[in-house]
Each structure stands twice: as C-alpha cells, then as structure tokens.
Amino acid sequence: MKQILQLAMALFFSSFAIGQSFYDINTINTIEITFEESNWDYLLDQLAQAGDEERLMGSVSVNGQVFDSAGIRYKGNSTYSSNQVKNPLNIKLDYIIDDQSLEGYGTLKLANGYKDPSLVREVLSYETARKYFPASQSNYANVYINGTHLGLYTNDQSVDKFFMQSNFGSRDNTRAKGEITSNGPPSGGVWEYYGADSSNYYGYYDMKSDYGWEELIQFLDTLNNHEEYVHQVLDIDRHLWFLAFSNLLVNLDGPINNPQNHYLYKDDNGRFNPIPWDLNESFGGFRSHQTLGNLSTNQLQQFSPFANINEDDFPIISKILSNETYRKMYVAHMKTIIEENFSDDQYLDRALEIQSIIEEDVQADQNKFYSYSEFTSNLYNSVGGGPNSVIGIGQLMDARVDYILGLSDFQAAQPQIASASYSPEEVSANSEVWLSTEVEQAEQVFLAYRQSQLGVFEKVEMFDDGNHQDGTANDGIYGISILVSHSDIQYYIYAENADAVAFLPVRAEYEFLDISVSNELVINELMADNESTVVDQDGEYDDWIELYNNSNTTIELEGIYLSDDA
Fold it and tell me: Which of 109, 161, 163, 164 is nearest to 139 (CA)?
C-alpha cells in the first residue's frame, strides 16, 4: 500500500553549481574603489610593509553594485612595489558587514600582470586546470581608485571557505597555504616533516582555518615516514593531476620547485588536496630551479617530467612518483592534458581568443608593465633579455610537447579501453548490477565506484574468465557485479599493464560515468521555513519534508537517512 511519512527536520541547502557571471571570461568587470583618505596609496604601502594584513576601509563598486565598508590591502611579494602605481589588490567585501558578498564571493583578488607580457598565463592556466581538479575561476577587471584608472587586472577567485564549499562540500576543515615568510628568494623543501612542534612550520605555511596544525603535521609525518598509509591522508589521483599540470606548464614558482603558491585542504574523507594559486609565472615565466639552477630556454623546454623524483627535500614528488603505479598514472594524466589542450595548437587558439577579449583594455592601460607589441608577441616569442626574459608560450610548449612525448615512459603502449556498460538498464535500489568493459593490452582491469558524490572510489578487480557476465574467457571483455543501495553510482574503468595505465573516462577521477538508481521513495512536499503554519505532534513549528511511497509495496527504510552533510 502507499504510505506518507512526514518528518520534521532542519533543512540545509548547499549548491555546487554556483553562478559564474562575475568570472565569465567574456566579461571585463569594472571595480571602483573609493577611499575617504586622499593619501590612500601611502596608507596601503604602510600596511603592506607592516606585513600584518590589516586593511584600509573603503567603498567598492563592482559593475555598479556598491559594497560599503569593504577592507582593501595590497597583496603579493615580487608583484608588489611601493614605487609602482598598479599593485595587486585584496578586497574583502565582508570586512565589516557580515555576509556581504557578490554572488557568494566575499573576497576579491586582483593580480597586476607583473612578469607576464601576454596577460593570459594566469587565466589560461586556471582554465586548463579546472578540467582536471578544483582550481580558481579567473577573468579580468578594470580597476579605479578615487576615480583614477589603475589599469587592467587579472581577477582570480579566492581559495576561501566559499571555494571549499563549492568544490568539496565542506568549508571549515584544515586549510593551509604554502608560502615563504622570509624576505629572500623562495627556498626550502616542499612538504617535508620537521617534527611535532608546529612552530617549525610557521615559515612554510599560513594556517587559514581556525585550527589544523596538528592535522597538517600528521599528514606530513605520514607522507615522509609512513608511505604505506599515504593514500589514507592524500587524494593520490588528484595530486597526480596537480603534479602533471604543474610540471607540464613548467610552473616553477609553485610547489614542484618552491614551497609557496598552493593550498592544502583536508576533505571530509580525511585526505588532503592540493590546490594551485598564483599562476602568473606558469608556462616557464619563472626560471630559477632550486636543484638545477637558472634554466635556459632549452632547459625549460626539456624540463624533466620527473624532476626532483630523487630529491629527499621534495617528498611532494619523490614520495609519490617513486611508486611505480602512481608514476604510470601520472604519465597517463599528463598525456591526457597534452592531447586535450596542446595538440594541434588548441592552446594558442584559446590564448588568442582570450587576448582578443582584452586587447583594447590592454592598449588603454597606462600602467601596464609591458608594451602592447610585447603583449601580442609573447604568445610566440621571448620578451626581454638575459636571465629575466620571459619565454614565449608557444616557444615553450611546442618544443616541450615534442620532448615529453618522445620519452620512453610516454611512448609505452597503454591499455585500450573501448567501452563500458552495465545491466540491467533499469537499476533498482537494493539490487545487483553487472558492469562490463572491453579492453586490449591490459594485464589487470579494475572498476572504481562510489555511491556518494563526495566519497572515496573503491576499486575492485574485473575478470575475463567467462564467469562474470564477460562473454567467453580471454576475449578482452571484463566483468564484475556490485550491490547497490539507494544512491546513484559513479564509476570509472582503470586498466594497467607492465608499462602503462589507462582510464575511462580519461579525466577520471575528476570525471566519471553514472548509473542512475531508481527509487520509488520520493520527496513529495517540503516546508523550509515553518514559522506558524503547520504544528507537529510536540506542538512545535519545525521545518519538514514529506516522503512518499510511489509504489504499491512496502519500502524498507533501514539504511536510508537524511543528512545536512553531503
């Protein structure tokens, strides 16, 4: 029989599909800052030199929308100078007024284009990264202070609580930023363990969450001293994507070479996730390598994808890529990034499209660090001379892709995954589903699956023995069954041989295939703000939802739950 179950509960709504109009690449934002103080530049310089991240209060208009009592400060290390007009800016809209934000964004971060004649390195890099792991949105903004046009800025999404909620479904877990607090050039190892005393880490990390030193140190201890448990404290697949992206784009001002310009966030599964930051010197814009010295153009083009693999000071690389399986996954991921972005000059076509959006604003920028001709030529050619020259993006990547794809690791024959399917076509809750895949040149094939949107993928081996709905034995078709509950299934296929691995889809684990699980149990009604309308059995006005059995049979509710935590 059909039944109605009415439950009182506090409803929690969170959205992973955040409106992106503020970061729409085709939109050049207008940000106008107004200070009461006429000597605002002097005051911002004083705050920057004090180094305590205090702010000067002002009014901020973003595309005509006014935000009062915002907090503004200069940001950046090498990109900031008291002698220049166009300094990078950090704008906190909710500095005084709680929850004051623009489309949910409470902090705006504006980079000044220093060290990037092309003005596309940051935007293009973030756009590429977002295909494979969480990374900031990025576009452009014209900035004015007290009516004076400072110039065209890169507008990069802050890696803050809102970013975490949007990408990880949580916001208050341990979040640390890798950075150098000394005044000298970037130096020191990356992700090393310096003992249990948190003060040993103050020079390398800025703790952005309310707590987290103990958890960060435990992570570093596990990575350095207990490698067999690293997969429990680090999202390995996401980290391999991060390393492949960073190395391919020769982002030497990031953690493959320097301790700075990245974040670490601990998700609800207890695993840390690397997040990139400050990509204005990607594509070889930063030449100084800690173990290899100042790199020439040829050395940038032929920068090894396995650089620092044997360096104890860089466990971020050496403790991961020393694992043979992880190394093969890393190679597969880098090949995917190359094939999807850097074959047939797609990246240059995209860079030209981005430059066409901003070219008029670049010409109008009286405080830009490079000429308009250097802006156009740096896509292909080096700008400047000597050790401070900035290599052309195409000059770097065309030669780099040829070099990398010529290496033996990248020429190894990968397994070929032709397809994946499941049966029955209509999957019901609390049932068995069979999955199959057709693979060539594989020694082992695995199904990776999960029944929670933010959960950890579980890997189970698939078989080509004729006993797992896989056709006949040794026909290249592999099968396995799993039991499903009430949640939809997310899955991918992973295949491995002695020399290489392959994924289906190729962007796994960030992308995956889906199996929809049909449920006769549905949410029929809800009241999210019950002030005085419906009273419950206890005489209270709780918010509530109504569940409805859409079938003619009884549905067991055992194992089903409602939660405000995805």
Answer: 109
- C-alpha 279/C-alpha 293 separation (Å) is 21
Instruction: Please name the helix (run of DSSP H) or strand (run of DSSP E) that holds residue 31, with its range, or none.
Output: strand 28-34
* 499, 328 contact by CB (below 8 A): yes
Residue located via tokens 């110039």: 151
What pLDDT shows up at residue 186? 74
Q: How far apart are CA 179 and CA 186, in angstroms?
A: 9
Alpha helices in 12-120 (DSSP H): 40-50
Give me the numbers of helices (H) and strands (E) for the chain, helices first please. Answer: 13, 26
Question: Which residues does 423 contact at the CB level (< 8 Å), separation at least 6?
Answer: 433, 434, 436, 469
> Is the alpha carbon torsion for 183, 139, 251, 212 positive or negative?
positive
* Signed CA dihedral, 360, 361, 366, 372: sign only: negative
Residue 485's pLDDT is: 87
Report cis status (omega within 30 of 0) of the bond before 509.
yes
d(CA 73, CA 92): 9
13 pLDDT band (50/70/90 cuts)? very low
Average pLDDT over residues 141-156: 98
SS (HEC) of 228-289:
HHHHHHECHHHHHHHHHHHHHCCCCCCCCCCCCCEEEEECCCCCEEEEECCCCCCCCCCCEE
Q: For helices 346-364 and 324-341, give the axis angle rounded to 10 degrees.
A: 60
- How far apart (Å, rounded) are the C-alpha atoms in residues 493 and 416? 11
Omega into 424 within 30° of 0, i.e. cis?
yes
* Residue pair 392/379 in contact by the 8 Å Cβ criterion: yes
Dist CA 160 CA 92 (whole Å): 11
SS3 content of the chain, % helix, strand, coil (to 5): 25, 25, 50
* The token pair that represents 252 in the structure block: 């030497």
Q: Which residue has the tokens 């065309």?
A: 398
Q: 71 — alpha (psi -120 to 50), left (phi > 0) or beta?
A: beta
Query: For 499-547, what is each residue's pLDDT tens digit?
Result: 999 999 999 999 999 999 987 788 888 888 888 888 888 888 888 888 8
